[in-house]
Amino acid sequence: MEREDSRVHQEAIRLNRFLALAGVGSRRKNDELILSGAVKVNGKIVRELGVKVDPFSDRVTVQGQIVALQRKIHYLLFNKPKDCITTTSDERGRVTVMDYVKMRDRIYPIGRLDRNTTGVLLLTNDGGLANALMHPKGEIERVYRVRLERGIEDEDFSKLKRGVRLEDGIAKPHQAGVIPGTKRTDIYIALREGRNREVRRLVEALGYEVEALERVSFAGLTTQGLARGRWRALTRAEARHLKQQAGLES
Fold it and tell me: Which residue of 1, 41, 155, 215 sits 20 to 30 Å from the alpha carbon of 123, by its own alpha carbon?
């Protein structure tokens, strides 16, 4: 698992396009407004064409009036396949999650998964919720199914549950177990922190190789009934559950 960023990065867009999307006028008309000094970004007059703004965090005014985009909030669950990177775009032309989750509105993954890690990935344009879910103090539980190249020994499994020393300190699963009927090659690991590639580093530190890694749950949400590479919108109850998990609703 790659490090899960503590905040969501949203793509900046040109100021004249932002104004056009907000219904102020055409891009040419908006360029004229910018050049005239009628537009402020975060309290400062902007006269320079080509300036970019974050559409949902920067404060934009035109002749003193606040301008904002009206948007629908989306909460999505995606069953991420292998050979897919968790970004909104890739300069090297690799397949990203957005090649699967096609929407008119801009949405962003909550956290990251390695290219070859599969399973639960949430996406949203609710930056407040995403940031709260990713913040370390939230201790949101993530559960992974790990397939090893050989069955894990009792002694090594005991070490895993007690905690393993990594280069950035002791890492200890919140929970861990052997999945029955797998000849001890498949285990589950539940974490409540987002260290860089933590699952892989845990088992590699014990002398095992990861053959397959799937996130089977994030904050209690799973991909049950959802085929690999498919996505769906969360129900209202699921979205409310996420907000409660993030401490945004009582």
Answer: 41
Residue 150 banded pLDDT, cuts 50, 70, 90: very high
* Burial state string for 105-136 with b = 16 or more CB within 10 A and e = fewer than 16: ebbbbbbbbbeebbbbbbbbbbbebbbbbbbe
pLDDT band at 10 (very low <50, low <70, confident <90, very high): low
Average pLDDT over residues 42-65: 91
pLDDT digits (tens, 9 = 90+) for 96-106: 999 999 887 77
Domain map (residue ranges) of the chain: 13-67, 75-242
Q: Is the pLDDT of residue 7 over 50?
A: no
CB 200 within 8 A of CB 3: no
Of 229, 218, 205, nearest in space to 84 by CA: 229
Residues facing 118 on adjacent strands: 214
Query: What is the reported pTM?
Result: 0.74
The hierarchical CATH code for the domain 13-67 is 3.10.290.10
Q: Do domains 13-67 and 75-242 have the same CATH topology?
A: no
Among the listed residues 114, 126, 156, 186, the single catalytic one is 114
> Under CATH, domain 75-242 is a member of which superfamily?
Pseudouridine synthase (3.30.2350.10)
Q: Let me know if 114 is a catalytic residue.
A: yes
Nearest to 128 by CA among 231, 57, 59: 57
